[in-house]
Amino acid sequence: MKLGLVAEFDAAHSLPGYIGKCANLHGHTYQVEVVVEGEVGEDGFVMDFYHMKKILSAALQDLDHRCLNDLLPNPTAEKIAQWICDRLVEELVATKIKLVSLKLWEGKNKWVMID
Fold first, then answer.
1. Rounded Cα gap, residues 45 and 39, in angstroms
2. Domains in the chain, please, with CATH?
3. How many Å from the N-terminal Cα to the C-terminal Cα in the chain?
């Protein structure tokens, strides 16, 4: 069975070497949608939403209200999504839960997805 969770964070970035407005420092409200999959346990849960929210919040805490260039040399949406994905996989490795997909919106109407 699959379950999903959505969270948001705000951050700034610039894209080095980019020709256009995004070369300048600017900010976004990012939205992250995570889908995980696993078996329903005897407790009735694949994973408690509270526990999933803690894992996602921990993965996003280093991004929220930061300049992403301090963490990633070229913080494109693709690189940010991969950074989040890597942290989630680290946290989920101790469980029997599999990360199915991660979708990252950079503002409205623009997104990247890892599945």
1. 8
2. 2-114 (3.30.479.10)
3. 16
